[in-house]
Amino acid sequence: MEIALRVNGQERTGDIEPRRLLIHFIRGDLGLTGSHVGCDTTSCGACTVLLDGSPVKSCTLFAVQANGSEIKTVEGLMQDGELDPIQAAFKEEHGLQCGFCTPGMMLTAAELLDRNPSPSEDDIRWALSGNICRCTGYVNIVKAVQAAAPAKSEPVATGSEA
Amino acid sequence: MTTVEETDVHGIGQSVKRKEDDRFIRGKGTYVEDLVLPNMLHMAILRSPIAHAKIVSVNVDEAQAIPGVVAVVTGELLAQHNLAWMPTMSGDTQAVFATDKVRFQGQEVAAVVAEDPYIAHDALGLIDVEYEPLPAVTSPQQALQPDAPLIRDDKEGQTDNRCFQWETGDKDATEKAFQQADKIVELSTFYPRCHPSPLETCGIVADVNPISGKATLHMTSQAPHAIRTVFALVAGLPEHKIQIITHDIGGGFGNKVPVYPGYVAATAASLLIGRPVKWIEDRTENLISTGFARDYHMRGELALTNDGKMLGIRVELLSDNGAFFADAQPTKCKVGLFHIVTGSYDVPAAYLSTQGAYTNKAPGGVAYRCSFRVTEASYLVERLVQNAAYELGMDPAELRRKNFIKPEQFPYKSATGFVYDSGEYERAMDLAMNELGYAELRKEQEAARAEGRLIGIGMASFTEVVGAGPSKDYDILGLKMFDSAELRVHPTGKAILKIGVQTQGQGHETTFAQIVATELGIPTEDVLVQYGDTDNTPYSLGTYASRSTPTAGAATAMVARKLVEKGKKIAAHLLEVSEEDLEFKVDKFSVKGAPDKAVTIQDVAFAAYTNMPEGLEHGLEDNHYYDPPNMTFPFGTYMVVVEVDADTGQWKVLRMLAVDDCGKVINPMIVQGQIHGGLAEGYGIAAMELITFDDDGNCIGSNFMDYLLPTSWETPRFETHMTETPSPHHPIGAKGVGESATVGSPAAYVNAVIDALAHTGVRNIDMPVTSAKVWEAMQGAARSS
Fold first, then answer.
1. DSSP tag of B48
2. What is the count of residue pairs from A and B with beta carbons less than 8 Å apart?
């Protein structure tokens, strides 16, 4: 089947089997390997991309379902050579360790901040609850999202400063 | 000459931002699944749906006939190349692909190698395996019954399902201590099977060059050098023709220590076909077949005087080792380092008797973010101590305080033979209690109870033992547990540090550069840390059991000191003074008493290639193989406050406060991040994570909808604090820290729940402490009161 969609602002096309998963199209056909596969069951969120602005788990969507849509992956977060504030904040706040969940986590967070420029800690934790991280215990991910928020909320209390 | 302060080189003690993040935040990490080699094929593995069965036949004709299928690999084919079985890390054997029987659900039976992964999976469904089912053995208790079906009939002389028997400590002395005791407190508890579940599963791209015979194995390994040696021994390949490259690893937590059948099969397929072969596990394969953790049935007893002095500890263990004894642990240890079970306490006598059993479950007990079973030991003793406090009518903190090993007792030799290097247990506990407001909380707990609300305060004052070697005591398959570092300074004063230990997210690219910065004065940003390529890094036993900093971190400091010594000779030549007149501070060699007469490390590096004194070898580089004189013993106190819903058994963490002491801290930001991660995994283990089996041996917990990992929503909020008690024997005073929080925290969470119910007589709820189990415990307590 032929499909055409916009990925990170560029027109992309593919001639693919109907059963091909969106994540495999993105990683294999388009070579955008920043999105990862962690669980195959829509549980972990490592494959999260934005589809028409909303976070989706691309491991449980067929690529043909994305025909005609606008996709954003981690590779599309930078604008004009500048890091997105969420990318800068993840580094600054040590919001990542092994880096495997990070692309999906940042995209989910970026979408949250688009909707809600000053999320509370509960807002952030709820929004990110479809993305599993095994390394950070989420503490610094929450901090990073707060730091990247256009309208800053109260920082998280986490004991004595390291 | 400008003065460079210690902080200007961004060395030890500073929260330097991580170098590795620049690629990860752009989605430009390179994980094994990202690799695409020319002509690469894809492998998928057929696994047994049955836990225990004879293989009657394997027919691959239909699978082979699908266009795009290049080969179907069976156990029989591997057997022709003497590869159907492989050695395990505990000196047992494990089937690569089953030939005679399948012994657990998910065991590898055959594989399809195809042009495309979708085709490979299509073909798997067409392999026809005829099984003759056998009764499954699903618990170690069942396994050791006299009439239990024999699982390991492949092993000569094996007549039952006993896997090992091992004891340590002084049985008689412990017996005597128990005879003298006023009080004996007993706890039988099960530390259930759980799984490390790094977010990236295991995988390999095996690329055996048909002309040179060189095998380049791009794989997810926490111990690439040791694995290279194992591959050489297993496959009979010459070791100089095996190169293991790890790239970026998406978490490990022990899961990526062992050699798995998929690695061997993909390598064999590449060798036979002459093209690169990629194999990437799916999540179910990862959960049902790779290294699990724990699965220990434990019975502990603590002997005490009426006023709370501990006299002895006695433990009986029964472990469920699965179908093959494939635990990753030092050779001489059958239950890892469980004999650290005396914990933070001065217990004069200890005795431990253990046995392991084969069952029809996945093999490969790994330490899930833990130093070889110290997690189970720490859990048991910390649970026992709290229960003992209830029996004695003492406050659990005060019972701990009374028995802590005191600072002046270090180095302290424990009843099971460990020599604890340093610790200030009381200081850590007091800090935790003060920050928590412990005394006040106890009053609140009392007041809440009067209103019918169930508040619990749990604590754990753990001590870990990490950083194996020393080589005289610890080896894996004979490979001694030293570690190494190689440091080369280029003419312009930039350096490359090569290490064999393997980061999986711990930030080695940054922290190891910080050690060089402090020792040699070359700023962290000017030090490139290279790892993950066995052709280009020195030998290493790998990263697990919190051993990188204690071993390779020490080697890094030591090699840098060698370069300082050589640098001193060069500086003496440049300054025309004698070596003895020089001192090295931060980044400069200066004349004692005349600090302006100085050259920098960069001047010295340039001279090493341009203006070397006669008689001195050119260049500025060296290596160091470090054999630690002892383990390091990080410690801390964790405190958890929970509220249990009296109607439903649901419990919620109100506070989680951690005080850690890992000796000298290299990068506080990274250390704190490690602790956060461990506290979350500890919570998962205490509250949610469970791999279990039905009576037929079907794995329950084979995907992330059944095997529950904590998300940002369930994970408690953490408050973290540090004390710093340097290791006296480590060159920079550091101890390992990556696993402290997973080791220490499960007991604190569970103790908190028990504490909320203790007044009703509840003394144990096995993990994971689900609301259903809490509710049942409350009903039981109500019935018996």
1. -
2. 194
